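Quick one, tokens below:
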């Protein structure tokens, strides 16, 4: 078994990969050429479905698991460092997710009521 770090939508996962060889036994001619490899991947966590895949910009990640109570910005909106982008409820407390820098919101990947995990990409600012 080999261990790898795989990045999916900007989120890193530790995975273990095991190669399993299966030899077809129906025909002798197929036995020589029909070795199949199967890969089993066991990720420690499941990625969240992202609405808009963005290659540019800086991701704003969820600092903790919770539920999105409100999205305070819209796509294309200019934001300044410290502006409130989202309200995230975690452990019955409302947390303001603020912009760490000036820029423009280029993608919003969550909506009101969505559940998020630590590290999930909430939106992108460029």
């Amino acid at each position: 078994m080999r261990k790898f770090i795989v990045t999916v939508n900007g989120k890193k996962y530790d995975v273990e990969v095991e190669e399993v060889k299966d030899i077809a036994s129906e025909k002798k001619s197929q036995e020589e050429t029909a070795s199949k490899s199967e890969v089993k991947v066991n990720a420690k966590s499941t990625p969240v479905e992202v609405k808009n895949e963005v290659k540019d910009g800086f991701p704003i990640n969820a600092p903790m698991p919770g539920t999105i109570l409100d999205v305070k910005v819209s796509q294309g909106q200019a934001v300044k460092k410290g502006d409130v982008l989202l309200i995230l409820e975690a452990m019955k407390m409302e947390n303001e997710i603020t912009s760490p820098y000036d820029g423009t919101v280029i993608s919003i990947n969550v909506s009101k009521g969505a559940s998020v995990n630590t590290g999930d990409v909430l939106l992108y600012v460029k």
